[in-house]
Automatic annotation (TrEMBL):
GO terms for molecular function: ATP binding; hydroxyethylthiazole kinase activity; magnesium ion binding. The lineage of its organism: Bacteria, Pseudomonadati, Pseudomonadota, Gammaproteobacteria, Enterobacterales. Coiled coil: none annotated. ATP binds at residues 125, 171. Its cofactor is Mg(2+). This is Hydroxyethylthiazole kinase. Pathway: Cofactor biosynthesis; thiamine diphosphate biosynthesis; 4-methyl-5-(2-phosphoethyl)-thiazole from 5-(2-hydroxyethyl)-4-methylthiazole: step 1/1. Substrate binds at residues 50, 198. InterPro entries: Hyethyz_kinase (IPR000417), Ribokinase-like (IPR029056). GO terms for biological process: thiamine diphosphate biosynthetic process; thiamine salvage. Belongs to the Thz kinase family.
């Protein structure tokens, strides 16, 4: 079935809700993208907090509105803290989101993410190679980068969504967001987004935040993708390379209105 585009009224409503609700997002993410992730959430009006000590992580995930688990720089100790945070989030009915960074070639993180799939993630967001690998359909990409296109990974995303009950977002030149039955498509963004570290990881944090909103989760996750794509499209027209892109991108997120969020 052909993917649908997002409805303009729904995305405008989700943006409004995002700012009004200002989700408190517990980010357990990698060492590379901490500040960028926090800045992206803040620019959109959400409230990030990076809590990683095992005991505190367990405590905080029950207080936060949403939890992000990103395995980009996973260690054994972090894996234990992440499991504790997920258990506590689930007990508190807090939605949690998985970013399976570089899953496939690396055994420890691949096994860890496979185990997490049984713990009812609300959403999973990855690039094409990560989603293919997580679904057991390929051996992963090139480190943290994809070697596949998002459209190639769409069947894997749909299978994963049906198996886990999560909304799965597979991103790239076009983003596809699926619950296994219905699929939404988000266009826009720019290839320059792959020349700046952390756009995918930060998007996963925004996806996590969107899971705390009321309404249809498939639409809310797709709207999160649309925020990033739209800001990317706007920022690239004002920037001359990766450095100025980052500043323009944060400004564009901050100034987003309902326009162009498809
Ligand atoms: N070629 C591209 N054209 C437009 N947008 C892109 C392109 N590649 C990635 N993006 C955007 O960059 C963001 C990060 O996605 P992606 O690169 O797939 O994740 P990751 O950084 O985890 O590999 C998403 O908003 C996605 O839509
Ligand atoms: C470079 C790198 N290495 C481990 S995690 C990470 C960041 C990946 O960020 P993104 O998935 O958003 O490109
Ligand atoms: Mg990534």
């Amino acid at each position: 079935m052909q993917p649908d585009l997002l409805d303009r009224a729904q995305t405008a409503h989700a943006l409004q809700q995002f700012r009004r609700r200002s989700p408190l997002v517990h980010c357990m993410t990698n060492d590379v993208v901490q500040t960028f992730t926090a800045n992206v959430l803040l620019a959109l009006g959400a409230s990030p907090a990076m809590v990683i000590e095992p005991e505190e992580a367990q405590q905080f995930s029950a207080i936060a509105d949403a939890l992000l688990i990103n395995v980009g720089t996973l260690t054994r100790e972090r894996a234990d803290a992440m499991r504790a945070a997920i258990d506590s989030a689930r007990a508190a009915d807090t939605p949690w989101t998985l970013d399976p960074v570089a899953v496939g070639a690396l055994t420890f993180r691949t096994q860890f993410c496979q185990q997490l799939l049984t713990l009812q993630p609300a959403a999973i967001r990855g690039n094409a190679s990560e989603i293919l690998a997580l679904a057991g359909m390929s051996a992963g990409g090139r480190g943290v980068d994809t070697t596949d296109t998002a459209s190639t990974a769409l069947p894997a995303a749909q299978t994963l969504a049906r198996q886990t009950g999560a909304i799965v977002a597979v991103t790239g030149e076009v983003d596809y967001i699926t619950d296994g039955e219905r699929t939404l498509m988000v266009t826009g963004g720019d290839a320059l987004m792959t020349r700046v570290v952390g756009t995918g990881c930060a998007l996963s944090a925004v996806v996590a935040a969107s899971c705390a909103l009321e309404g249809n989760r498939l639409v809310n996750v797709a709207t999160a993708c649309a925020f990033m794509a739209r800001a990317g499209s706007l920022a690239v027209t004002k920037s001359t390379g990766p450095g100025s892109f980052v500043a323009e991108f944060l400004d564009a997120l901050y100034a987003l209105n309902g326009e162009g969020l498809q």
